[in-house]
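User: Can you recover a sequence for this backbone? Please restate the input before giving your answer.

Assistant: Of course. Working from this structure:
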C-alpha cells in the first residue's frame, strides 16, 4: 500500500454537472482514511500559480447538488511546456502534495499522463465531461444531466414548432463526439440526427424531410456542433434553399448544456468514482482513469482512455429512421 498523506484535487477543461459531487466524495473519503486534501483552484494554471488551499469535510458541505465546480476550472497553455510542468511540480512539493486526483476529460488526462511520467507523481483521473467520449467508463460525469437538459429544451422547442408548422435545426454540443446528439435525438423524436462520426448527406436529409408525413406539425433535426457539413446554420441555409416554403429556424442550445443541478445518476456516479479514486491511490494505482463499466469500478490507463474514437452503434441511427416515419 502506497504511503500517501496529502492528496491534491483539481478540475480542468470544460465544467460538467456532478464535478462538485466528485470533489465532495474525494474529500470525505480521504478524511475517512485519515488523509489530508489540498484543493487546487483553476486546474493546471492554478497549480502553476500556487492556488492551493486545505480542504476538509466542511469544505464540501452542501455542494453535492450544485452545478459547475467550486474549484473553478481553466485551460493552461503554460502546462503544455516542460517549464510550466516544472513550476507545477515545485508548487506541489512546496505544499506537500504527494498524489493527485484530476477531474476532467481527454485534455486533462493527456496532461496528467505526461506529468505523472515526468515526475513519478501518483495521479488518477475522474471522467468529468458532458460529451461521454472517454474509453473506460459507460458514462462520464455530467453526461446524464446534459442530455436531460437537451431533452427539456427540445420538448419546449417542439411546442412552438407545432404551433407554427416549423422545421427546427437544433445544434447540441459535441465537437468530436455525437453521443449527446444521438441519444437526445432518439429521446426527442427527431426526424434526423447529424453527428461527426458519420458523413452528413444533405440530399438524404432533404429527402427525409420531403417524404415525411404531410400531417406532421413539426420537424426536428438534431445536429452535433462538430458534424462535417458546417453546423446548424449551414444546414439550415441549405434546407431553406431546397424548401423555401418551410418555416425553417435554427436553435443553438450552447452552454445551458453544461449548467444546472446534476441529476441523480450523475451524483451517484461521481460519488462512487470519487471514493474509488482515493482507494485506488492508497492501493498504488497511478496514471489511470477511474470509471464504471457494467456497474463495476474500472481502471483504464490514461493513454487508452483518451483515445476516444468510439464506434457509434448503427442500431441507434436505424432507430431514428424507423421511429421518424
Amino acid at each position: 500500500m502506497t504511503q500517501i498523506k496529502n492528496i491534491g484535487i483539481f478540475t480542468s477543461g470544460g465544467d460538467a454537472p456532478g464535478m462538485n459531487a466528485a470533489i465532495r466524495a474525494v474529500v470525505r473519503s480521504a478524511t475517512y482514511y485519515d488523509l489530508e486534501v489540498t484543493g487546487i483552484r483553476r486546474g493546471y494554471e492554478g497549480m502553476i500559480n500556487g492556488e492551493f488551499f486545505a480542504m476538509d469535510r466542511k469544505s464540501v458541505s452542501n455542494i453535492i447538488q450544485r452545478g459547475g465546480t467550486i474549484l473553478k476550472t481553466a485551460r493552461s497553455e503554460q502546462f503544455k511546456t516542460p517549464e510550466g510542468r516544472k513550476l507545477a511540480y515545485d508548487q506541489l512539493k512546496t505544499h506537500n502534495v504527494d498524489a493527485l486526483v484530476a477531474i476532467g476529460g481527454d485534455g486533462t488526462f493527456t496532461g496528467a499522463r505526461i506529468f505523472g511520467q515526468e515526475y513519478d507523481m501518483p495521479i488518477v483521473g475522474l471522467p468529468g465531461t458532458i460529451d461521454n467520449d472517454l474509453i473506460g467508463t459507460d458514462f462520464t460525469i455530467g453526461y446524464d444531466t446534459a442530455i436531460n437538459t437537451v431533452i427539456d429544451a427540445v420538448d419546449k422547442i417542439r411546442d412552438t414548432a407545432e404551433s407554427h408548422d416549423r422545421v427546427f435545426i437544433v445544434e447540441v454540443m459535441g465537437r468530436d463526439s455525437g453521443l449527446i446528439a444521438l441519444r437526445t435525438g432518439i429521446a426527442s423524436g427527431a426526424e434526423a440526427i447529424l453527428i461527426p462520426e458519420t458523413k452528413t448527406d444533405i440530399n438524404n436529409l432533404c429527402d427525409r424531410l420531403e417524404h415525411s408525413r404531410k400531417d406532421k406539425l413539426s420537424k426536428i433535426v438534431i445536429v452535433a456542433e462538430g458534424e462535417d457539413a458546417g453546423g446548424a446554420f449551414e444546414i439550415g441555409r441549405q434546407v431553406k434553399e431546397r424548401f423555401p416554403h418551410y418555416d425553417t429556424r435554427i436553435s443553438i442550445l450552447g452552454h445551458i448544456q453544461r449548467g444546472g443541478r446534476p441529476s441523480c445518476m450523475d451524483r451517484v456516479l461521481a460519488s462512487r468514482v470519487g471514493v474509488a479514486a482515493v482507494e485506488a491511490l492508497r492501493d498504488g494505482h497511478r496514471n489511470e482513469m477511474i470509471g464504471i463499466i457494467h456497474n463495476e469500478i474500472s481502471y483504464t490507463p490514461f493513454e487508452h482512455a483518451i483515445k476516444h474514437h468510439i464506434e457509434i452503434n448503427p442500431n441507434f441511427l436505424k432507430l431514428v429512421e424507423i421511429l421518424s416515419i
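That completes the design. The radius of gyration is 22 Å.
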